[in-house]
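Message: A physicist's question: would you kindly supply an amino acid chain plus fold tokens?
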Amino acid sequence: FTQLIVVEKALGALDYFLIQGPPGSGKTSHVLKYIVEHIFNNTSENILVLAFTNRAVDEICSALKRIKDETFTFFRTGAKEVSEHQDVLISHLVETIPLTELYDKLNNSRVIVSTVSSVLANPEIMELKEYGMAIIDEASQILEPQIIGILSKVNRFIMIGDEKQLPAVVIQDEANTKIDSEILQEINLKDMRCSLFERLLECCKRNQWTHSYGMLIKQARM
């Protein structure tokens, strides 16, 4: 019941929603899959689904393939070597079917799945169509400069992550990443090692914006 409330609040968000998902809470296999399926069936929006690593993107692809709807299609970006889902991988399909056919398939599909780095390296993904919703898995691993440009081009977004388990990996030490500006600290921008997910979560908690975040508490792994 609690999971359903979190998902309903996420789907109803006008700008953004943050989902905290501890290990084993089904944030990719169930929650992300359900959100994509619901948006696909109840809106006409295009959906951009992102994650930090190729492994996470492949997990998303596996989850989306369990959607039982013949009209549902999606495509994945990335090099041929990085994914086991060759049947939806654009770099594989471009060598196996005519370009005009692939172009039509991409135009008719409302869902693109990608790593953040692949979108940044291939900006034409954002030019292909307008995305009403972006869903970012592993969001706690993604630094603010990496994602903010992408999010500026979507109407609203949902971030799913666990800042306690998977923080962003940063080489610089604390002394070189601390922010002294009082203006920036007012929006919880205190350390450049902090992900946008974590910063927004702190803002929501400080301002009691309970409509903008929620935690999955049902554990299904053990």
Remarks:
- Residues 204 and 212 are 7 Å apart (CA to CA).
- The mean pLDDT is 91.
- The first helix runs from residue 2 to 12.
- The longest strand covers residues 154-161.
